[in-house]
Structure formats: structure tokens, C-alpha cells
Please model this.
Amino acid sequence: MPLTPLDIHNKEFARSFRGYDEDDVNEFLDQVIKDYEAVIRENKELQNQILALQERLDHFSNIEETLSKTIIVAQEAADEVRNNAKKEAQLVLKEAEKNADRIINESLTRSRKVSMETEELKKQASIYRTRFRTLLEAQLELLQDEGWKTLDHDKVLELEK
Model:
């Protein structure tokens, strides 16, 4: 067990015939007591500083740990957001491709339909023109027939009557 300043102060030495000078010894002991008290005070102050520094170190260690965890959580969240964005972009792209394919297929179907309708109309126009030409030619033949001349002459006679 370490000595206290009180132990040093209360220490008594046995007296001998040719011993040390009591005043010198007491004066030296008083100086040792002062120095020892100063060392004890300094030691307590240093221990208090160590405790305060240890508390701060613990506080900063907790902050560091919290920040590390926060960074990890933020990184995981960023990775998740990035992955979700990629998945959503892929879904949007697939949907756009489906819509594009559908639009192309509809356009091709419409184009074929219009082409078929156009061909059908051309055929009908050709048939109509052929029939109309045949009709006109038949009418022209009728007009060029000699029977019309007699009809005209008979009509003129009837009108004169």
C-alpha cells in the first residue's frame, strides 16, 4: 500500500545517541510531504484528464461507428435505388419495344389492307372503264345504225301533221 502524506508526516524515528538532527529530518520530511502531495495532486489531475479524454474518445468512437453504419446504410440504399431504377428502365424499355412492335404490326396490317383495297379499287375502276367503254361503243354503234335515220325522218313527219 502506497504511503500517504499523512503517513510521512506522522512517521517517527527512534532516537539514538549519534542520530540525525531532528530539525533537519523534520524539514526534509516536510519538503517530501509537499512534493509527495504535489505528485498525488498531479496524478489525480492526470487521471481526471485521462477519464475526460477516454469519455471523449468513447464519444468519438460512437460517432465514428454511427457514421460508418450510416454510410453503409446509405450505400445500400443507393445500390437498391440504382438497381430499382435499372429494373424500371428495363421494364419501360420492354414495354416500349412491345408498343413499337404492336404499332409496327398494326401499321403493316393497315398498309396491307390499304394496298389490297387500292388494288381492288383499281380492278373495279378498270372493270368500270371497260364496261363504260363497251356501253359507249354500243351506244355509238346504235347511233351510227341506219335505223335512226328513218326514225328521225318518221318523227319529223309526225310533227308536221
Summary: The radius of gyration is 63 Å.
